[in-house]
Amino acid sequence: MPNALWIWIGALGLCVLLSAAGIAVALVDIRTGKRQLLHSGRRILSYLPFAAGFYGWLGYCVYGIGWLLTSDRSAAGFWKDASAPEIVVAASACALPVLFGVYLALTFHYPKRRERPYAAMLLLSIVSGVGNASMIFVINAAIAEGGEVRVRLFPFFVLGMLLFVCGQKLLRSRLIRMTNGMVYDKRMEILGTVLNASYEKMEAMERGKIETCLNNDTETVSAFANKLVSIGTWTVTIIAGFVYLALINGAGFLLSLGVVVIASGSFYAIARSANKLWEQARDIQNVFFKFIHDLIHGFKELYLHRDKARDFREDMGDSCASYRDKRMKAEAKIANVIVIGDLLFAAVIGAVVFAFPALFPGMGDGELRSFVFVFLYMAGPLTAILSSLPELFQARISWNRIKRFSEELSGLRGRETEPFAAEPVDEVSLRLDEAVYAYPRNEETAFAVGPIDCEFRSGELVFIVGGNGSGKSTLAKLITGLYEPKGGSVTLNGERLHAGDIGSYVSTIFSDAYLFDRLYGIDFAAKEKEAQRYLLLLGLQDKVSIRDGRFSTTRLSSGQRKRLALLVSYLDDKPICLFDEWAADQDPEYRDFFYTVLLSDLRSRGKCVIVITHDDRYFGLADKLIKLEMGKIA
Ligand SMILES: Nc1ncnc2c1ncn2[C@@H]1O[C@H](COP(=O)(O)OP(=O)(O)OP(=O)(O)O)[C@@H](O)[C@H]1O
Q: Each residue of 41-82: pLDDT tens digit?
């Protein structure tokens, strides 16, 4: 028996076994609930006629191989006299697509979370690549042979088309799911990293970096994953093409291989040299998002002052122009190589047609034609692979940026990934012993608060006062655990908690508090009545309503927004309340109500109330007054 037959039996047998194992594992996953049905049974059944047609055609073609392998071109005769191994190969060739099809159907309609079906996608890539290449070989053979053979080759041409089209369809449907799942997973991962990062890191982070990373980088990486699959199919087509060329003419094959190696090598070198420009362009993206941030938040100022808007436009225009120029430069480099690559391919074809007859006198016209034909067919996928290289480099840049961004955020000790469960406490004592916080020294005016010794207890109203820039808000961030002390300690009921976990005991309203339109982290159903009562108490009942934990609006005056933030703080119901210049936006009447009624009500409910204020009229109401000067208690 010829060796090739054994190789076929081995390869097909292995694939049959792998597919059967894949089906078994998928069935176990379905039974254990790891895989859930996604589509309706009717939709799955609607694919059956297509599958039946495909497998019927495939069986017909396997049978038809007999025509090609026998000298008298009789399929029936061939299979009558076929040896047992030949029958095994034919049976496996029919069984494999059926098993693989069942595996694909199971895994597609019963998906698993975070599934990355690389092996199945690789196989589909090979199938569609072989289908693509086989079409041109069949066409070539049909032209060369003519007559009855041409008619008998037709089913194989259709099979090539079916393999290519079905392979691509199945591949792309998996790819769409995988790449979108990748973007989702990456975004969730980055979001998780951001939410667990330390506040100090986030505060120091260059503005625009998070947006670029979450938006552009995740998209670029997933878009490339998409491309990777096309590259797989093209590569298979090219490899099959080269094998075919080698069979037609060894010298022609070597020449074309040499050209492809030279073209790919120079392309790679040029793409590498453009890499620096892409890196720079990527940096400019961060700045671009910073501009967008400024545009949105500073729109009022820009709208009112045309001169400001003009200068802003110029500034943003410069940044966009710089991005455009970098990308243009990089892409121009690539365009040059694409043109040179095309020229090289044309040169090879020219050399084959004009030089080969002189160099190899034995080479017939038929061989020449086949050679040119196949090479022309390969040129498309080849150019497509080469033009994908820039995307590869850009995806690599984005991938590295995502990695570096995550490392940067997790570099400084952030919180534990598991949410901290604050133990319910009736009484609190928050102590600062020799506590110090200093801003990073990289700024000329690096400021420090401390060393500070003080204690805040339940049922106590403490005012923190002092001039602008004396360090009140910095101290508040130290107390609430937004900043980790650089020296000394902050303890809660004698226990030294991780700075990021102190927040679980504190309800804060900073002067630049952000109001979400949903009551995150609050069981609204259990507190609905309370919420309505607070709306009334805060004089917001005609302005805002709350339904299913969502505010009807947050488009309010700044004083009203602060009142709504106070409502959230009431519902948070934490043992410590910290308000940073809360009353600054309130009218005199409500300000008075805040100091004389609301604060003393919180104190009488046993809360530890810390208030940062400039309202010296009310200083007398405090149990304790902490006055700061240049970051120290005066
Ligand atoms: N993010 C920051 N990075 C570096 N330095 C900062 C930062 N925030 C504040 N500072 C420095 O800390 C000093 C104190 O600021 P802080 O906000 O604590 O003052 P404050 O007493 O709350 O002032 P105000 O009454 O104006 O709100 C500032 O003068 C500034 O130099």
A: 677 777 888 888 888 898 888 888 777 766 666 667 777 777
Contact (CB, 8 A) for 499 and 414: no
- 553: CATH: 3.40.50.300
Task: Assess whether the C-beta atom of 473 lies below 6 angstroms from ligand 1.
Answer: yes
Domain co-membership, 231 together with 377: yes
Would residue 472 count as lying in a domain? yes
Contact 441, 429 (CB under 8 A): no
DSSP per-residue string spanning 503-527: GGGEEEE-TT----SB-TT--HHHH
pTM of the model: 0.69
**Is residue 460 assigned to a domain?**
yes
- For the chain, how many structural domains are there in total? 2
Ligand 1 nearest atom to the CA of residue 471, by list position: 18
CA gap 159, 155 in Å, rounded: 6
List the CATH number of the domain containing 197: 1.20.1560.10
Residue 437 · residue 474 · CB < 8 Å: yes
- Burial class (CB within 10 angstroms; exposed 0-12, middle 13-18, buried 19+) of 171: buried
Same domain? 507 vs 396: no
> Which residue in the block uniquely carries the two structure tokens 């916080």?
437
The single residue listed with the structure tokens 């949410």 is 419
- Which domain, by its residues, includes 517? 429-633
- DSSP one-letter code for 420: P
Q: Is 388 in contact with 381 (CB distance < 8 Å)?
A: no
Domain assignment present for 450:
yes
Residues 389 and 452 in one domain: no
**ipTM, 2 dp:** 0.96
Distance from Cα 476 to the centre of ligand 1, integer Å: 11
| Nearest by Cα to 344 from 272, 438, 262 | 262
Q: Do 331 and 397 sit in the same domain of this protein?
A: yes
- 253 and 327 co-located in one domain: yes
Burial 431-452 (b: 16+ CB within 10 A, else e): bbbebbbbbeeeeeeeebbbbb
Whether the Cβ atoms of residue 78 and residue 66 lie closer than 8 Å to each other: yes
Span from the CA of 473 to the centroid of ligand 1 (angstroms): 7
Report how far ligand 1's centroid is from the alpha carbon of 471 (Å).
Answer: 6
Q: Are residues 308 and 375 in the same domain?
A: yes
Orientation angle between helical segments 365-411 and 118-145, nearest 10 degrees = 170
Each residue's pLDDT tens digit, 385-416:
877 877 888 888 888 888 888 777 765 445 55
For residue 412, what are its two tokens? Answer: 């400084």
Could you tell me which residues are beta bridge partners of residue 432?
A: 454, 490
